[in-house]
Amino acid sequence: MEAAKQGLNHEIQGSVAVMMNTFLIEITERWPECWLVVNKHDGAIIDFPAGCVPETEIRQLVQRPWNIEGEEIVSTASF
Q1: Contact 9, 1 (CB under 8 A)
Q2: Alpha-carbon gap, residue 21 to 19, rounded angstroms
C-alpha cells in the first residue's frame, strides 16, 4: 500500500512540475521583457517592467485546462 501511495504522489508531483515548466516557458516567450525571480516548489515569482503586468492574460494561461498524459487537469493556482 505504501508503494502505491508513493507512486501516486510521484505522478502528481511530476504533473505539477510539467505544468510549472510549461507555464514559465510560455510566459518568458510571450513577455521576453520579464524575468524569473525565484522558482519555488509549487510557485514562482516573475517580475515585469513597471506598467506591464499582464495579470489577466497570465491567469488565463495558468488556469486553463491542461492535458497531461491523456488526463485533463484544471489548475487551481492563485495569484
Answers
A1: no
A2: 6
Strands (E) located in the chain: 35-40, 43-47, 65-68, 71-74
Taken in order 46, 49, 50, 54, the sign of the CA dihedral is negative
Q: What is d(CA 26, CA 34) in angstroms, rounded to the nearest whole number? A: 11
Beta bridge partner(s), residue 28: none
Each residue's pLDDT, cut to its tens digit, for the chain (79 residues) gives 888 788 777 777 777 788 888 889 999 999 999 989 998 877 888 898 888 878 888 888 888 887 877 888 777 766 5
- pTM confidence score: 0.70
Is the CB of residue 52 less than 8 Å from the CB of residue 18? no
| Grid-cell match 495579470, residue found | 55
Record the cell numbers describing residue 64, joined without a space.
486553463
What's the rounded Cα separation, in Å, for the pair 3 and 6?
5
